[in-house]
């Protein structure tokens, strides 16, 4: 059994305890009856998961390659923050370009950057045509589009 | 018009009346588009049918209910078959349903018979798919009539049964699957109580309106796939991509029909697995492959490029599609994870599973079911044509696919109700799901919990009110033939899954 698996099971138990506390202490009345039933069941299952892992000493958890996903998480957070003040299409173009470039397989030369910019332009133009002009989907608006 | 042929008391032949509706210009165009999109998305490694359907649900808002469901149904059908293109050409199943196809499909491609393997794949998918949709047509109305007899207590237990059944699929252990399902049920209680109108657990303004089903679907399925695609972007080029040889289509048809044992076995297993709530294409394909190999006179050829392996696996995973909608349309219990997502599509169009689908919304329902039949034909034609260009589809770099999925997830979520909060909820759930998936948790039970939660809670509270006025809570929920049967089914599904899990663990440990 690896430490990650044990940590994951303990975290799921902690989450179940937190949700149980929220359901039982969050308020009174019939509106909380169903969440209380569910959270009690959740707590029982989470305890069983933790006990099974500890008793059988089995269970593996895959490692998360944080160095791989961290840049994507940062880009994603910046994308969401920029949506409402830069506008959907402008912020999407920046996010698409950043992910495309950062995760390109080869070396990042001028040609790679230019290719990535061209693909971004084509993608966002297609997005604008389909969603804005075609389907008239409302998108977050900001300084730009 | 009353049809003369009545099957199990239901007007199953009613579907003939609504056939022309599918052939109307707009619906046909959507069917073509959906099949094309499904094949392309299915062929791209890393994009599953479940994610494809989840991503497209918001865009059906702007369509009529019939058109929206036609699009989702066509994408579901075509993406399951399209996944075989990458399974055969690059040894990466486009979807979990195509895992068994890899075993012999890629081996055939390695022998210079890639086109032949693709022919077998699409022809057997078509035959299996048509048989599966026929089962959907003839079984669904009868089961829907049966569902009329259910009251709040039975409907509550059906919702719980749905969670226990699908809770055992996809996760690394039954307990983790059940925990995921319970978590989904809990998430569904955030926001206003549907019966009492009390706000619950809205710790942030973004949660006041509760968790939107489609936002959750997109986050839970699309965002973890973005990270998977980013990982793939670092390993592309390692897989060998095979070219296509010239091969007669007519010969492939004739050969496929001669392999009727593999075709029949695959279709039958696909249909049975599809009807069983919570199973799915992955199981259908693998079981059909295994059984066909056991029945074969030359089992030693399996895994080394035997066409029967491809025929059995592909006929099974497409035969599963239609039947997986039988329990979904009648009882609200999905037959596969993709069907669970499709349930979200039904609900956002105001269509609730049950007999009303075949009475109040008969036109929409039958048009949708008929479109699945036609989608099989389009999938065959377009699949055979597009598979020639399969290698181009697979050369789309994973980093750009990941970027495109991210942007589509955001616009798809935002467009549901123009809510920035939904986008934030989608992103948070997505990242959390990615981390949870590394610990053996699966998205499908959580999604099903979120979808079935309101159904379970509404019926629980209604049942509670009736119980207080009659025999009491225990007698209302725990007595009566239907209640006891459903409780027994809930217990049996968990016990059965635990037994299967133990057996496979013992087998794993016994392996040298």
What can you see in these coordinates?
The complex is a heterodimer of chains A (145) and B (512). Chain A is mainly α. Helix content of chain A is 74%, strand content 0%. In chain A, helix 1 (3-25) packs antiparallel against helix 2, helix 3 packs antiparallel against helix 4 (88-102) and helix 4 (88-102) packs antiparallel against helix 5 (110-134). The longest helix of chain A has 25 residues, at 110-134. Chain B is mainly α. Chain B has one domain. A two-stranded antiparallel sheet of chain B has the order 1-2. The radius of gyration of chain B is 22 Å and the shape is globular. In chain B, 63% of the residues are buried. Mean pLDDT of chain B is 82; it is low at 1-10. The chains are: A mainly alpha (145), B mainly alpha (512). At the A-B interface, helix 1, helix 2, helix 3, helix 4 and helix 5 of A face helix 8, helix 9, helix 19, helix 20 and helix 21 of B.
Number of strands of chain B: 2
| Strand percent estimate of chain B | under 5%
Low-confidence segments of chain B, given as residue ranges, are 1-10
The low-pLDDT segments of chain A are: none
C-alpha geometry of chain A: flat
- Report the β-strand fraction of chain A as a percent range: under 5%
Question: Terminal Cα separation of chain B, in Å?
Answer: 65 Å
- Write down the oligomeric state: heterodimer
Strand neighbour order, sheet with most strands of chain B: 1-2
SSE ordering of chain B: HHHHHHHHEEHHHHHHHHHHHHHHH
Largest contact between chains: A-B, 64 and 57 residues
